[in-house]
Amino acid sequence: MVSISKNKSVFSWEYSPAPESKDHIKINDRYELFINGKFIKPQSKKHFDTINPATGEKISEIALAGEKDVEAAVKAAREAYTKTWKKMPAKERAKYIFRIARVIQERARELAVVESIDGGKPIRESRDFDIPQAANHFFYYAGWADKLDFAFPNKKPTSIGVCAQIIPWNFPLLMAAWKIAPALACGNTVVLKPAETTPLTALKLAEIIRDCDLPPSVVNIITGDGSTGEFLVNHPGVDKVAFTGSTEVGKRIQHSLAGSSKKLSLELGGKAAHIILDDAPIDQAVEGIINGIFFNQGHVCCAGSRLYLQENIAYTVIEKLKHRMQHLIVGDPLDKNTDIGAINSKAQLDKINHYLNVGVEEGNEIFQPDCNIPAKGLFCKPTLFLNVAQSHKLMQEEIFGPVLAIQTFRTIDEVIEKANNTPYGLSAGVWTNTGSRIFGLSSKLKAGVVWANTYNKFDPTSPFGGFKESGFGREGGLHGLMPYLQFD
Ligand code: NAI
Ligand code: MG
Prior knowledge:
The protein has helices spanning about 65-85, 90-105, 110-120, 125-145, 150, 170-185, 200-210, 225-235, 245-255, 280-295, 310-325, 345-360, 395, 410-420, 435-445, and strands spanning about 1-5, 10-15, 30, 35, 40, 45-50, 60-65, 155-160, 160-165, 190-195, 220, 240-245, 265, 275, 305-310, 365, 385, 405-410, 425, 425-430, 450, 465-470, 470, 485. The chain has about 500 residues and is α/β, with parallel strands linked by helices. Helix 13 (about 395) links the parallel strand 17 and strand 18 (about 405-410). Helix 2 packs antiparallel against helix 4.
């Protein structure tokens, strides 16, 4: 049923609830550590709760790996590397990786629902983006496993050894796939640690890996918090560290690995500039802006969180943007109509609210739509800040929430200067009808990815990664193999 509400400042569609069913989902009351192909109790004897951020309810108890558990996981990964995985013909390794991809596809519906319950992201995103992309990454890297000599001719690529992989909470299963798939294809073994607020899909992936008969210990998945991550990164049995998360922790890891022979790749924060030129297709650009910052509650390292509008179209774009925002639905992540789900954790909501206060204190004009947000759970209205100065915290610091800071510009040189003026350099977006302006801007913007006339588009064949404090190393594509190989 669709009805038109006249209570709001604009006409707005109101939809009846369309909740995704969760009857088919089985979540255990307690999950242990996945080491040596089995779920085992932690030697630390500690567990922690993972909650549903949309309701505040506890979902399950999760093992907290301590130092001895990390030791057991790294030891297991080492044995599997030297005795099994390294020696296995590449085309045999590929078959296991293909199998994992197939089972992710088969269990896609279940994984999507679990992802939305544990992390708060709308089911539309987990169903249409996260889970299919995760399967695609396993498919893609399975294809590379026996073709490494062709990918890097005359370079004799070989595996590295045991990889410690630490992932965040914004794309839990997808980040696990980004890390595990290329590592396995290149002949390495893995100890993966998911984030403490979103461990469930990584544990479901552990079940899948077990059911695919992957040789035991080739992939170990240990849950825990920052202390677990620290033990893992610093363990002497680890040959390679791959980390995605905050710039602060990334820097700490870089410090602690200095002087060691461990290889490192970091994918850290961002403050992407989204640039709209005056010859851009405005309606499409508005949709791109919405997708760029409100997608996944702005919990996206490449979120288009700074909007630069050419002065002569700024008024039109802002009016259209405000109108479009009135129609965004904030609410139950499991409802198929929801555009903006729950904020991942109380700590993250506190951080976003802090920046909303900072934005007002800095003297910026704030706009939020009239939409209701659920009384229970962790939610935040999509927010614009207008007339923000380049020096304001809102333009410089990563918020990681549905908050967009807007500035205008006159010339292309001016916008390049402003866009490059942050410590980050992960991504950017450009909207214009002129091809040469796209090439001009994309070669001058210091960002690992520049999208043109679209935003947040991903594909396993395309490399992704940053400049400056956004990190180094690439994930995805042929480049994504390099951090997991050494060359003679
Ligand atoms: P975080 O960097 O603390 O957590 C990311 C992962 O690192 C988690 O698995 C965590 O357990 C682990 N970790 C924490 N401390 C560690 C340590 N000392 N050694 C090894 N591993 C460690 O990020 P957090 O606190 O969840 O989010 C804070 C901010 O970071 C966010 O507000 C956002 O601005 C940014 N962030 C960026 C992400 C990205 O994709 N680039 C993802 C998540 C957060
Ligand atoms: Mg959770």
